[in-house]
Design brief:
The structure is a homodimer of 502-residue chains. By secondary structure, the first copy, chain A, is mostly helical. The first copy, chain A, has a domain at 2-152. Chain A has 22 helices and three strands. Chain A has helices at residues 2-32, 39-57, 60-68, 70-75, 81-98, 101-124, 127-146, 156-160, 168-191, 206-219, 258-274, 291-305, 309-322, 324-327, 332-339, 353-372, 380-392, 418-437, 441-446, 451-460, 470-478, 485-498; strands at 227-231, 237-239, 245-249. A three-stranded mixed β-sheet of chain A has the order 1-3-2, with helices on both faces. In chain A, a hairpin with a 5-residue loop joins strand 2 and strand 3 (245-249). In chain A, helix 13 packs across helix 15. Chains A and B meet through helix 1, helix 2 and strand 1 of A and helix 1, helix 2 and strand 1 of B.
């Protein structure tokens, strides 16, 4: 009887997973191949599917099943797939059912139009176009938090949507350690002679960039039978199920080889999704543990591998040969230093490893202030610019390259930004553990052998999908909570060497 | 109150249309870009969405609304969009609710596996692999018909799914007129010296074929802002809504310029979908009137335009310039005759205008016999070969190029084939009318001006979508029922000239 109920839960999970996958396909097409005229229909299709999905997840049927399965669940090994699936379903059900349908509908409506308003605002660098929409979004997010009262902090319920279990106080504590260290490091770097990266700012033909990216992805063991790469304006990874995980890359032929790093970043996300155990197929567990854990994978491949000395020792000769007119006179160490150039900049997505987290800290501070009510949306551009001055010593010349640069808020994604920085931290925590477990990791990478790393990741991270909450997963693997110190050590060592800081 | 109920019906229609559109997106991706590993997930997603769609269309809510709307509908202008939407919704609701859920589920299950079995069977030319699946499908289709008993003919309920309102007796009557005339024409053609088409059987580079196809589609006024063209093994047209209508083409570089005609064929389908009135957006009426009417549009552009003297008088110089090494020594009339070469062949999709319908007649005869129970599936290959001998004078050397050539039966699409031949007939019926209304049509085409034709089609056919049943639409436009005589006249005149038959 209980077994039958569990089967029923599984079959509802399958349906939920199928609809989620369908939504992902529609989203992928929207960003890659959809003609302009398709956007109105696509918006309708996506909102209809989202509504159907919401009704499925919050159905009385699931609520009743979860209740009936309580005694069954209590007898299971708490680490079994079954117990975890019940737990995660319960978490989703209980979160979603707390929120009123009216709220869901208003939020969906405003975020749909807000994105268009944000695009217009950014194009014309006119915050006033976006302001009323962001005001509504902030009001709605504050209302959202109230559905979860009482809470330690009003930001907690938002953060929990991206990092289940993590609290605002945890993030603040982590960032409080990290910030002065990164600021100090950047100060020291800025005192040193700047490295040369002029060779990166010239035309690199598209086809060669694309092919090189594909060959790296192939070396990373990206499974082309279960995925593909396409082009889009903003690179992303999406999964339609364990057998179809797609990435996109942005090829800028004018002035960079950015697509290589973009491919490695998205490839890192994709390896995670492709590595999830088939036993979790068609359930809510067949995804990453959290946004930060996901980002730890992408940043590991992009930075710890893709921006490392070892990696370029191996790959540089081929790169140089491919782009001989651009790189013919550039030696590999100059190239390595060039791709790792540190320079405070206005734009988060274009920033280097040493400054990136500061962009995030600014956003977190502003999000928290807006949620607490101490910062009004109308004062946001000013607060942004003041923060940029304080954190990075720069003042944006206009809002397009300031407060309007990121799409996230227009989609109602408040609480998302911190996961980027946390992902960086986690990547290095894992990296230290991997280096203990694979003492010759650097030599392997230096020989172009990336399989040892992937095996470790599959065994320790990927296979589990969303079975474990992020902090639990990290503790299982590293024995520690999220810790900024390894990241600080990593930055100091790497950039100390590049910039000759003693 | 009633108005409110009608709004409710519209909003359910919108939901149904959104899900239908989503299914189309998933299907398109499956045929164009999906990696091999995605097929299992995709199958699950499609079947879940199909189930949700079925439940929506057959919901008690719709049933109740339709009943409540009866007095309202009776007061409406019977040709109004509102009255027609209610009518079509009722037709779909009443057809779908007659069929048992068990049948729907078994049919979905068997057709999913049958397609794979058919692929295997065709690859190995071994009918026995496919036979048990087809036996189940035929049994299920016979069961399906019983849901609609009493009927004039057991084939009627199947035909009705593709040609609403048309009866088996109508089709037989039409084909009985057509068949001896086509057979006689082919006989006369075969007595004459064959035309030369050797220049078509050589390599034509892909990019040039693609670009030429795109330029013709552009001249046809295919709206690239509301559509796109991709490649697939089997060309098709699909609509995700009025703002996003996509076609695919098959490029065979080895031995033909087949992609040009494929693009025009699918372009004809697409112009129909793109030309539907925006007032019908997001309803069941935002599609073609029937498969045959749809095919009349594709065949009109492919054949009546794309295989005409006038068309090539205009386009041939450019084609010859593009493919100068293949066509440099071929004059335009030789080319025109070459693309219109008549030759009985084994494969339906490769056959010419004069023989095509005979392939359809054979299939119809076999389908009817299987449905009536006078032909068993085990005897189908033999019956196929006997029919090919009788109709076209050829015996397939194996089942792959015989009974296994078409995918339709594996998907359970019995009743579909006749619409191809009916589409040919309707295309010429419309063509005669168009030539009356636009006396200089041929000159316009000969000058590369295709807009007059498209305007006529939009005004008389496209805008109405599925508002009118196919026979009603044809009668409105031509004043006649589906009639084989114009098609016979057309074939006799065209091929009489090409083959010099007096």
């Amino acid at each position: 009887m209980t077994d039958e109920k569990y089967r029923k839960l599984e079959s509802l999970q399958n349906e939920i997973s199928d609809i989620t996958g369908a939504i992902a396909v529609l989203g992928w097409d929207q960003q890659t191949y959809m003609p302009q005229g398709g956007s109105e229909d696509r918006g309708d299709q996506l909102s209809t599917l989202a509504r159907i999905l919401h009704l499925k997840i919050t159905s009385d049927e699931i609520g009743k099943l979860l209740e009936d399965l309580l005694p069954y669940a209590s007898q299971l090994d708490p680490d079994s797939d079954e117990a975890r699936l019940i737990k995660v379903t319960r978490r989703e059900y209980s979160k979603r059912t707390r929120v009123s349908p009216d709220w869901v509908e208003e939020f969906a409506r405003v975020t749909t139009v807000a994105e268009t308003a944000w695009e217009q605002a950014r194009e014309t660098s006119d915050f006033s176009i976006f302001r009323p929409f962001l005001e509504t979004i902030v009001r709605l997010e504050r209302d959202y938090a109230q559905f979860f009262a009482p809470f330690e902090h009003v930001y907690d319920p938002l953060l929990d949507n991206y990092e289940p279990g993590l609290k605002t106080a945890d993030v603040k504590e982590i960032f409080d350690v990290l910030r002065p260290q990164q600021v100090e490091l950047i100060r020291k770097i800025m005192e040193k002679p700047q490295v040369d990266d002029s060779f990166l700012h010239m035309p690199y033909p598209e086809k060669e960039q694309w092919d090189f990216g594909v060959s790296i992805l192939t070396d990373m063991d990206f499974d082309w039978k279960r995925g593909r790469q396409d082009k889009s304006i903003h690179p992303f990874t999406t999964s339609f199920g364990l057998g179809d995980v797609r990435i996109t890359t942005r090829v800028e032929t004018d002035q960079s080889i950015v697509s290589l790093f973009s491919s490695m970043h998205e490839g890192g996300h994709a390896l995670y999704e492709q590595g999830i155990s088939p036993k979790l197929r068609r359930t809510m567990l067949a995804t990453g543990a959290s946004m930060a854990v996901h980002e730890s994978q992408s940043r590991m491949w992009e930075n710890l591998v893709g921006h490392s000395e070892a990696f370029w020792r191996h790959y540089y000769p081929r790169l140089q040969q491919t782009f001989s007119s651009q790189l013919g006179n550039v030696d590999w160490f100059t190239f390595y230093k060039g791709v790792n150039k540190v320079e405070p900049s206005l734009i988060r997505v274009a920033s280097d490893e040493a400054t990136y987290n500061l962009h995030i800290m600014l956003r977190l501070q502003l999000e928290i202030a807006m949620m607490e009510g101490s910062l009004e949306v109308k004062d946001l551009p000013e607060a942004w610019n003041a923060g940029m001055k304080e954190y990075l010593g720069l003042i944006p010349p206009n809002d397009a390259s300031g407060v309007l640069q990121d799409i996230h808020w227009s989609g109602g994604s408040i609480g998302y930004f911190p996961t980027y920085a946390l992902g960086n931290l986690i990547s290095v925590q894992l990296w230290e553990q991997i280096n203990k477990d694979i003492p010759d990791l650097e030599q392997q990478i230096g020989a172009g052998k990336l399989g040892g790393l992937l095996d470790w990741l599959r065994k320790n991270i990927h296979q589990y999908g969303a079975k474990f909450e992020p902090q639990e997963l990290i503790r299982r693997v590293t024995g520690s909570r999220i810790d900024p110190k390894p990241y600080v050590r990593y930055l100091q060592e790497k950039f100390g060497q590049i910039y000759k800081i003693s």
